[in-house]
Amino acid sequence: MESKYILSVLVEDNSGVLSKVVGLFSRRGFNIHSLAVGVTNIEGVSRITIEVIGDELTVEQISKQLNKLIDVIKIKVSRSDELVKRGLLLVKVKISPKNRTEVIQIADIFRANIVDVSQSTVTAELTGGDSKLNAFLEMLAPYGIEETAMTGMIALERGTNVLKA
Questions:
Q1: Looking at 83, 112, 145, which one is the last position of a domain?
Q2: Where are the alpha helices (DSSP H) in 68-127?
Q3: Would strands 154-157 and 45-54 be described as parallel, antiparallel, or unpaired?
Q4: With 0-12 CB in 10 A as exposed, 13-18 as middle and 19+ as buried, what is 38?
Q5: What's the structural domain count of the chain?
Q6: Are residue 40 and residue 101 in the same domain, yes or no?
Q7: pTM score, whole prediction
Q8: How deeply is 52 buried, as exposed, middle or buried, from its count of CB atoms within 10 A (0-12, 13-18, 19+)?
């Protein structure tokens, strides 16, 4: 049965590491649903957060293959519901004088920030999990979405568990 999994991968902050990690997925014919990379609180260590949809066996195989890469320090595989996940969405929506207030009210309901306004568009920024971002887009769709940009999901385990190098 396919589920969403998050692979939290601590890697040495060397050039080419991301390429090696992504290449491993590509060679195995496995799709990455979401990808985010950033520095950590440990100097010389970066965190790659990879969201995949697959079965447990396939995700386990990918994890084992990643673990063989020299630059990989540690991997934690988690089901999506075991984590606090957030992504960032920027969305540009068509507006008119008649519906400008409605679009801004929808943004307020979702606690989105209006980051740009023109005569014919509004650009909003929203952070949240998949369901919140998708619901926001669904509410804005009838007004006409001009453009979207979304980061990959970042995630941390709930509670006191910590991924350390």
A1: 83
A2: 100-109
A3: unpaired
A4: exposed
A5: 2
A6: no
A7: 0.86
A8: buried
- Whether residue 159 lies inside any domain: the answer is no
- Integer Cα distance of 51 and 45 in angstroms: 20
Regarding whether 68 and 9 lie in a shared domain, the answer is yes
Q: What is the DSSP letter of 49?
A: E
Angle, CA 59 vertex, CA 53 and CA 60 arms, to 5°: 165
Residue 122: in which H helix or E strand, if any?
strand 121-128
Q: Residue 43 contacts by C-beta under 8 Å, 6 or more apart in sequence? A: none
Segments forming the whole domain that contains residue 117: 84-154
Same domain, 20 and 52: yes
Closest alpha carbon to 143 in 115, 122, 113, 112 = 122
* pLDDT tens for each residue of the chain, 165 residues long: 788 899 999 999 989 999 999 998 888 888 899 999 999 999 999 999 999 988 888 889 899 999 999 999 999 999 877 899 999 999 999 999 999 999 999 999 999 999 999 999 999 999 999 999 999 999 999 999 999 999 999 999 988 888 887
* DSSP H or E run through 26: helix 17-27
- My answer on whether 78 and 114 are in the same domain is no
How would DSSP label each residue in 138-154?
HHHGGG-EEEEEEPPPE
